Amino acid sequence: MATWNDIEEGRECPSQGCPGTLELAYPDDGGCSCHIAPPCGHCTSSFLRCTECDWTSEDDLPVAEPETELDRFRRVFKDRGVMF
Ligand SMILES: [Zn+2]
Ligand SMILES: [Zn+2]
After folding, report:
1. Structural domain boundaries of the chain?
2. Residue 35 near residue 70, CB atoms below 8 Å
3. Which ligand is nearest to the CA of 52?
């Protein structure tokens, strides 16, 4: 299961089944102004983007919330054809 610790440049995309890798991307805000005041907002707001899908590190991780005890019971009983 992917965690934010796995989100690094060059890592596999955390989207399930996606073969992409993560690459560093910068916001499309007109570009770098480090020549005026380094590091500029453009460079400090870099994020990671998948090369294959549209996932970026500004999105939430595509990982399910941890199951609560109740959800687990519901799932187990649903699998057995018992509905609540
Ligand atoms: Zn810059
Ligand atoms: Zn992807």
Report:
1. 1-84
2. no
3. 2
